[in-house]
Amino acid sequence: MLRSNKKINKALSAFLRDPLWLYLLGISFITFMIADESVEYMLASIFLMFSLIVIFYMYLNRAESLHKKIFMEFSSFGEEYTLLSSVTLENEGSKGYSDYIFISAKGIFNIRALDFQGVIKGFENDDVWSYMKITSLYDMAVKAIKNPIYYHQKTHNIIYDLLAKNNIRYIPIQSIIVIRDEDAEISTNSNIPIIKAKNLKKYISQYSNRQNMFSLLDEIVAIFNNETVFNYNFSGKAVGN
């Protein structure tokens, strides 16, 4: 609920700062005022509908959570898998966090969702990166942020160590970062893949099933159940491809 309210407040803030919606509604109001025939009223109604669609797309639809889009990708996955959400990991005093850990015969996917608008730039070994944030359609602000790759790689290493501690090795672990389909870009020299939300299913599907994974899936899931804290665990076979 807190995350949902934050998204709504962000959309309302952008809505109030950007005057474009006021222009669109103002023109719609004027067209209704000067219309005196049924055809003109019809045209005014069409323009009003167009304005409302534009406003929805530019402000409200952008507030749709990146996490919701990621769930839509997972829901169309046509193979058995286990999905852990909002995972906190700890191993020998080292802590990590993952938005999603996707476990299937294709391997283990450590997924971080970065929901932002603008451009994030930085080198893999730098502590501080730059974030050019889109504050409105006409304005941007640049600020310094902590290296998001560093913490994601740290989580990757914790996953590897947890499995090794339980005598599970040679299991493919792939860490990825998922961003918005539009208005978001990450420029870095890191080898960690940056994936648009709409391409998440396609990216995971390109990996082949590993025969050694089938016998280990339940054991791997049990390790995460015992060693981590997460919001929920979804297991099953998604409908569709």
TrEMBL record:
Protein's organism: Alkaliphilus pronyensis
Protein name: NERD domain-containing protein
Residue spans crossing the bilayer: 20-35, 41-60
Pfam families in UniProt: NERD
Keyword annotations: Membrane, Transmembrane, Transmembrane helix
Keyword Transmembrane: yes
Domain NERD per the UniProt entry, residue ranges: 78-179
